[in-house]
Amino acid sequence: ESKRMRSHASLYVPTLEAARKQQLSLLSDLQEAVAQNQLRQFLQPKVSALDGSLRGVEALVRWQHPVRGWLPPNEFVPFAEHTGRIRQITQWMLERAVRTLSTWHAQGLQLSLAVNVSTLDLQDPGLVGRVASLLKEAELPAHLLHLELTESGLMAAGPEPIQVMHSLHELGVKLSIDDFGTGQSSLAYLQMLPVHELKIDRSFVDGVNFDARRQELLGSIVKLGHSLRLTVTAEGVETEAEMAILRNAGCDLVQGYLVAKPMDTPAFEQWREQYRP
Ligand code: C2E
Ligand code: CA
Ligand code: CA
Ligand code: CA
Protein backbone atom coordinates (compact mmCIF):
# COMPACT_ATOMS: atom_id res chain seq x y z
CA GLU A 1 0.00 0.00 0.00
CA SER A 2 2.75 2.48 0.98
CA LYS A 3 4.61 1.60 -2.19
CA ARG A 4 1.56 2.44 -4.26
CA MET A 5 1.21 5.80 -2.54
CA ARG A 6 4.85 6.59 -3.19
CA SER A 7 4.61 5.80 -6.84
CA HIS A 8 1.47 7.90 -6.95
CA ALA A 9 3.33 10.83 -5.41
CA SER A 10 6.27 10.46 -7.72
CA LEU A 11 3.89 10.62 -10.65
CA TYR A 12 2.13 13.68 -9.33
CA VAL A 13 5.13 15.89 -8.57
CA PRO A 14 6.73 15.77 -12.02
CA THR A 15 3.35 16.64 -13.57
CA LEU A 16 3.11 19.83 -11.54
CA GLU A 17 6.72 20.57 -12.34
CA ALA A 18 6.04 20.02 -16.03
CA ALA A 19 3.05 22.33 -15.93
CA ARG A 20 5.16 25.06 -14.34
CA LYS A 21 7.89 24.60 -16.88
CA GLN A 22 5.36 24.83 -19.67
CA GLN A 23 4.05 28.12 -18.24
CA LEU A 24 7.58 29.49 -17.92
CA SER A 25 8.45 28.52 -21.44
CA LEU A 26 5.18 30.01 -22.68
CA LEU A 27 6.22 33.27 -21.03
CA SER A 28 9.56 33.42 -22.84
CA ASP A 29 7.93 32.17 -26.04
CA LEU A 30 5.37 34.95 -25.83
CA GLN A 31 8.20 37.48 -25.94
CA GLU A 32 9.37 35.82 -29.14
CA ALA A 33 5.90 35.51 -30.65
CA VAL A 34 5.66 39.17 -31.64
CA ALA A 35 9.32 39.52 -32.65
CA GLN A 36 9.23 36.33 -34.72
CA ASN A 37 5.92 37.26 -36.30
CA GLN A 38 4.05 34.21 -35.01
CA LEU A 39 0.74 35.96 -34.29
CA ARG A 40 -2.05 35.78 -36.82
CA GLN A 41 -5.18 37.80 -37.42
CA PHE A 42 -8.35 35.75 -37.88
CA LEU A 43 -11.52 37.44 -39.10
CA GLN A 44 -15.17 36.73 -38.40
CA PRO A 45 -18.04 38.60 -40.12
CA LYS A 46 -20.88 40.43 -38.39
CA VAL A 47 -24.03 40.46 -40.51
CA SER A 48 -27.45 42.10 -40.38
CA ALA A 49 -30.00 39.93 -38.56
CA LEU A 50 -32.67 41.19 -40.98
CA ASP A 51 -31.14 40.58 -44.40
CA GLY A 52 -27.78 38.91 -43.75
CA SER A 53 -25.77 41.73 -45.35
CA LEU A 54 -22.16 42.08 -44.23
CA ARG A 55 -21.86 44.93 -41.72
CA GLY A 56 -18.50 44.55 -40.06
CA VAL A 57 -15.73 42.21 -39.03
CA GLU A 58 -14.11 41.16 -35.76
CA ALA A 59 -10.39 40.39 -35.51
CA LEU A 60 -9.38 37.48 -33.26
CA VAL A 61 -5.79 36.65 -32.43
CA ARG A 62 -4.19 33.25 -33.04
CA TRP A 63 -0.67 32.15 -32.19
CA GLN A 64 1.16 29.85 -34.54
CA HIS A 65 3.56 28.37 -31.98
CA PRO A 66 6.65 26.75 -33.52
CA VAL A 67 6.30 23.61 -31.35
CA ARG A 68 2.75 23.54 -30.02
CA GLY A 69 1.01 24.51 -33.23
CA TRP A 70 -2.03 26.80 -33.46
CA LEU A 71 -2.95 28.18 -30.05
CA PRO A 72 -6.38 29.74 -29.44
CA PRO A 73 -6.48 32.97 -27.41
CA ASN A 74 -7.79 31.32 -24.24
CA GLU A 75 -4.48 29.45 -24.00
CA PHE A 76 -2.34 32.59 -23.89
CA VAL A 77 -4.40 35.82 -23.65
CA PRO A 78 -5.28 35.43 -19.92
CA PHE A 79 -1.63 34.61 -19.26
CA ALA A 80 -0.48 37.59 -21.33
CA GLU A 81 -2.86 39.83 -19.37
CA HIS A 82 -1.37 38.52 -16.15
CA THR A 83 2.21 39.25 -17.21
CA GLY A 84 1.54 42.55 -19.00
CA ARG A 85 2.58 41.05 -22.33
CA ILE A 86 -0.94 41.73 -23.65
CA ARG A 87 0.09 45.29 -24.58
CA GLN A 88 2.42 44.03 -27.31
CA ILE A 89 -0.27 41.66 -28.56
CA THR A 90 -2.79 44.50 -28.67
CA GLN A 91 -0.34 46.74 -30.50
CA TRP A 92 0.33 43.98 -33.04
CA MET A 93 -3.41 43.42 -33.55
CA LEU A 94 -4.01 47.17 -33.96
CA GLU A 95 -1.26 47.52 -36.55
CA ARG A 96 -2.54 44.45 -38.38
CA ALA A 97 -6.12 45.73 -38.27
CA VAL A 98 -5.14 49.11 -39.65
CA ARG A 99 -3.32 47.39 -42.52
CA THR A 100 -6.41 45.33 -43.33
CA LEU A 101 -8.66 48.39 -43.09
CA SER A 102 -6.35 50.28 -45.45
CA THR A 103 -6.64 47.52 -48.04
CA TRP A 104 -10.44 47.54 -47.79
CA HIS A 105 -10.58 51.32 -47.81
CA ALA A 106 -8.43 51.45 -50.98
CA GLN A 107 -10.93 49.03 -52.59
CA GLY A 108 -13.77 51.37 -51.71
CA LEU A 109 -15.14 49.01 -49.05
CA GLN A 110 -16.69 50.72 -46.04
CA LEU A 111 -16.16 47.77 -43.68
CA SER A 112 -15.37 48.25 -40.00
CA LEU A 113 -12.92 46.06 -38.14
CA ALA A 114 -13.13 45.45 -34.40
CA VAL A 115 -10.11 44.66 -32.23
CA ASN A 116 -10.47 43.15 -28.75
CA VAL A 117 -8.68 45.12 -26.06
CA SER A 118 -8.15 44.15 -22.46
CA THR A 119 -8.61 46.28 -19.37
CA LEU A 120 -4.87 46.53 -18.99
CA ASP A 121 -4.76 48.34 -22.34
CA LEU A 122 -7.26 50.89 -21.03
CA GLN A 123 -4.95 51.56 -18.09
CA ASP A 124 -2.08 52.23 -20.49
CA PRO A 125 -1.64 56.01 -20.88
CA GLY A 126 0.03 55.49 -24.28
CA LEU A 127 -2.86 53.67 -25.92
CA VAL A 128 -4.82 56.67 -27.22
CA GLY A 129 -1.73 58.25 -28.76
CA ARG A 130 -0.72 55.03 -30.48
CA VAL A 131 -4.20 54.49 -31.91
CA ALA A 132 -4.27 58.09 -33.12
CA SER A 133 -0.92 57.85 -34.88
CA LEU A 134 -1.75 54.52 -36.51
CA LEU A 135 -4.94 55.98 -37.97
CA LYS A 136 -3.19 59.16 -39.05
CA GLU A 137 -0.31 57.35 -40.74
CA ALA A 138 -2.77 55.19 -42.66
CA GLU A 139 -5.01 58.21 -43.40
CA LEU A 140 -7.96 56.13 -42.31
CA PRO A 141 -11.36 57.40 -41.08
CA ALA A 142 -11.35 56.58 -37.36
CA HIS A 143 -14.93 55.27 -37.35
CA LEU A 144 -13.79 52.19 -39.28
CA LEU A 145 -11.79 51.00 -36.28
CA HIS A 146 -13.84 49.51 -33.46
CA LEU A 147 -12.58 48.37 -30.08
CA GLU A 148 -14.34 45.69 -28.01
CA LEU A 149 -14.07 45.81 -24.22
CA THR A 150 -15.58 43.12 -22.02
CA GLU A 151 -18.20 44.18 -19.53
CA SER A 152 -16.52 42.22 -16.73
CA GLY A 153 -13.15 43.79 -17.53
CA LEU A 154 -14.67 47.27 -17.34
CA MET A 155 -16.38 46.53 -14.06
CA ALA A 156 -13.13 45.19 -12.58
CA ALA A 157 -11.11 48.20 -13.70
CA GLY A 158 -13.06 50.88 -11.83
CA PRO A 159 -13.56 54.43 -13.11
CA GLU A 160 -10.14 55.10 -14.75
CA PRO A 161 -10.87 53.56 -18.18
CA ILE A 162 -13.86 55.84 -18.71
CA GLN A 163 -11.58 58.82 -19.44
CA VAL A 164 -9.57 56.73 -21.91
CA MET A 165 -12.82 55.61 -23.54
CA HIS A 166 -13.88 59.24 -23.92
CA SER A 167 -10.54 60.10 -25.55
CA LEU A 168 -10.92 57.20 -27.99
CA HIS A 169 -14.49 58.29 -28.70
CA GLU A 170 -13.27 61.84 -29.41
CA LEU A 171 -10.81 60.41 -31.91
CA GLY A 172 -13.81 58.90 -33.69
CA VAL A 173 -13.02 55.28 -32.84
CA LYS A 174 -16.15 53.25 -31.99
CA LEU A 175 -16.39 51.24 -28.79
CA SER A 176 -18.37 48.07 -28.03
CA ILE A 177 -19.19 46.28 -24.82
CA ASP A 178 -18.34 42.63 -25.25
CA ASP A 179 -19.76 39.60 -23.40
CA PHE A 180 -22.67 41.75 -22.28
CA GLY A 181 -24.87 40.29 -19.56
CA THR A 182 -22.06 38.57 -17.68
CA GLY A 183 -20.46 41.56 -15.96
CA GLN A 184 -23.22 43.00 -13.78
CA SER A 185 -22.91 46.62 -14.85
CA SER A 186 -25.72 48.98 -13.89
CA LEU A 187 -27.85 51.06 -16.22
CA ALA A 188 -26.37 54.20 -14.68
CA TYR A 189 -22.89 52.96 -15.50
CA LEU A 190 -23.79 51.95 -19.06
CA GLN A 191 -25.34 55.32 -19.73
CA MET A 192 -22.06 57.00 -18.86
CA LEU A 193 -20.02 55.09 -21.39
CA PRO A 194 -19.36 56.45 -24.90
CA VAL A 195 -20.15 53.15 -26.60
CA HIS A 196 -22.12 52.39 -29.75
CA GLU A 197 -22.69 48.64 -29.48
CA LEU A 198 -23.65 45.93 -27.01
CA LYS A 199 -22.57 42.42 -27.83
CA ILE A 200 -24.79 39.91 -26.09
CA ASP A 201 -22.76 37.09 -24.61
CA ARG A 202 -22.96 33.72 -26.30
CA SER A 203 -24.36 32.09 -23.16
CA PHE A 204 -27.67 33.95 -23.70
CA VAL A 205 -27.92 32.76 -27.29
CA ASP A 206 -26.90 29.13 -26.95
CA GLY A 207 -30.05 26.98 -27.17
CA VAL A 208 -32.37 29.94 -26.56
CA ASN A 209 -34.99 28.36 -28.83
CA PHE A 210 -35.56 25.59 -26.27
CA ASP A 211 -36.50 27.86 -23.36
CA ALA A 212 -39.31 30.45 -23.35
CA ARG A 213 -38.01 32.28 -20.28
CA ARG A 214 -34.59 32.72 -21.81
CA GLN A 215 -36.25 34.00 -24.98
CA GLU A 216 -37.91 36.71 -22.91
CA LEU A 217 -34.62 37.53 -21.23
CA LEU A 218 -32.91 37.87 -24.59
CA GLY A 219 -35.73 40.13 -25.76
CA SER A 220 -35.26 42.36 -22.71
CA ILE A 221 -31.53 42.67 -23.31
CA VAL A 222 -32.17 43.76 -26.90
CA LYS A 223 -34.72 46.34 -25.66
CA LEU A 224 -32.28 47.57 -23.02
CA GLY A 225 -29.61 48.07 -25.69
CA HIS A 226 -32.02 49.93 -27.94
CA SER A 227 -33.25 52.14 -25.11
CA LEU A 228 -29.61 53.19 -24.70
CA ARG A 229 -29.55 53.88 -28.48
CA LEU A 230 -26.98 51.18 -29.08
CA THR A 231 -26.52 48.68 -31.87
CA VAL A 232 -27.25 45.25 -30.44
CA THR A 233 -25.19 42.34 -31.70
CA ALA A 234 -25.54 38.69 -30.73
CA GLU A 235 -22.51 36.44 -30.75
CA GLY A 236 -22.26 32.67 -31.02
CA VAL A 237 -25.28 32.18 -33.30
CA GLU A 238 -25.06 28.59 -34.46
CA THR A 239 -28.53 27.59 -35.68
CA GLU A 240 -31.36 28.93 -37.83
CA ALA A 241 -33.67 28.60 -34.82
CA GLU A 242 -31.47 30.92 -32.73
CA MET A 243 -31.21 33.29 -35.67
CA ALA A 244 -35.01 33.45 -36.07
CA ILE A 245 -35.48 34.31 -32.39
CA LEU A 246 -32.84 37.03 -32.54
CA ARG A 247 -34.42 38.49 -35.67
CA ASN A 248 -37.84 38.52 -34.02
CA ALA A 249 -36.38 40.11 -30.91
CA GLY A 250 -35.11 43.00 -33.07
CA CYS A 251 -31.43 42.23 -32.63
CA ASP A 252 -29.44 44.26 -35.18
CA LEU A 253 -26.37 42.18 -35.98
CA VAL A 254 -25.39 38.56 -35.55
CA GLN A 255 -22.11 36.75 -35.51
CA GLY A 256 -21.46 33.03 -35.27
CA TYR A 257 -20.73 29.72 -36.91
CA LEU A 258 -24.11 29.80 -38.68
CA VAL A 259 -22.74 32.61 -40.85
CA ALA A 260 -19.01 31.86 -40.73
CA LYS A 261 -16.27 30.72 -38.38
CA PRO A 262 -13.25 32.97 -37.82
CA MET A 263 -10.93 32.57 -40.81
CA ASP A 264 -7.41 33.65 -41.68
CA THR A 265 -7.31 36.81 -43.76
CA PRO A 266 -6.99 35.21 -47.24
CA ALA A 267 -9.83 32.78 -46.45
CA PHE A 268 -11.96 35.68 -45.27
CA GLU A 269 -11.37 37.55 -48.56
CA GLN A 270 -12.52 34.46 -50.47
CA TRP A 271 -15.55 34.10 -48.25
CA ARG A 272 -16.42 37.76 -48.74
CA GLU A 273 -16.26 37.55 -52.52
CA GLN A 274 -18.55 34.52 -52.61
CA TYR A 275 -20.94 35.56 -49.85
CA ARG A 276 -24.54 36.03 -51.02
CA PRO A 277 -26.93 36.64 -48.13
P1 C2E B 1 -14.81 37.04 -27.81
O1 C2E B 1 -14.26 38.39 -28.08
O2 C2E B 1 -16.12 36.97 -27.13
O3 C2E B 1 -14.82 36.32 -29.22
C1 C2E B 1 -15.78 35.40 -29.61
C2 C2E B 1 -15.28 33.99 -29.48
O4 C2E B 1 -16.33 33.09 -29.81
C3 C2E B 1 -14.14 33.64 -30.44
O5 C2E B 1 -13.31 32.68 -29.79
C4 C2E B 1 -14.88 33.00 -31.60
O6 C2E B 1 -14.07 32.12 -32.36
C5 C2E B 1 -15.95 32.25 -30.87
N1 C2E B 1 -17.14 32.05 -31.70
C6 C2E B 1 -17.60 32.79 -32.71
N2 C2E B 1 -18.75 32.32 -33.19
C7 C2E B 1 -19.04 31.22 -32.45
C8 C2E B 1 -20.12 30.27 -32.47
O7 C2E B 1 -21.04 30.35 -33.26
N3 C2E B 1 -20.08 29.28 -31.55
C9 C2E B 1 -19.06 29.16 -30.66
N4 C2E B 1 -19.11 28.13 -29.80
N5 C2E B 1 -18.03 30.04 -30.61
C10 C2E B 1 -18.03 31.05 -31.50
P2 C2E B 1 -11.74 32.83 -29.80
O8 C2E B 1 -11.27 33.36 -31.12
O9 C2E B 1 -11.20 31.53 -29.31
O10 C2E B 1 -11.50 33.97 -28.74
C11 C2E B 1 -11.83 33.78 -27.38
C12 C2E B 1 -11.70 35.07 -26.62
O11 C2E B 1 -10.32 35.49 -26.56
C13 C2E B 1 -12.42 36.24 -27.25
O12 C2E B 1 -13.78 36.18 -26.92
C14 C2E B 1 -11.69 37.41 -26.64
O13 C2E B 1 -12.20 37.69 -25.36
C15 C2E B 1 -10.29 36.89 -26.53
N6 C2E B 1 -9.49 37.40 -27.65
C16 C2E B 1 -9.43 36.99 -28.93
N7 C2E B 1 -8.59 37.73 -29.65
C17 C2E B 1 -8.10 38.67 -28.81
C18 C2E B 1 -7.17 39.77 -28.95
O14 C2E B 1 -6.62 40.05 -30.04
N8 C2E B 1 -6.92 40.51 -27.84
C19 C2E B 1 -7.52 40.25 -26.63
N9 C2E B 1 -7.22 41.05 -25.59
N10 C2E B 1 -8.39 39.25 -26.47
C20 C2E B 1 -8.68 38.46 -27.54
CA1 CA C 1 -14.99 40.22 -28.93
CA1 CA D 1 -17.82 38.27 -26.82
CA1 CA E 1 -16.20 35.84 -24.87
TrEMBL record:
This is GGDEF domain-containing protein. Residues 23-276 form the EAL domain. The lineage of its organism: Bacteria, Pseudomonadati, Pseudomonadota, Betaproteobacteria, Burkholderiales.
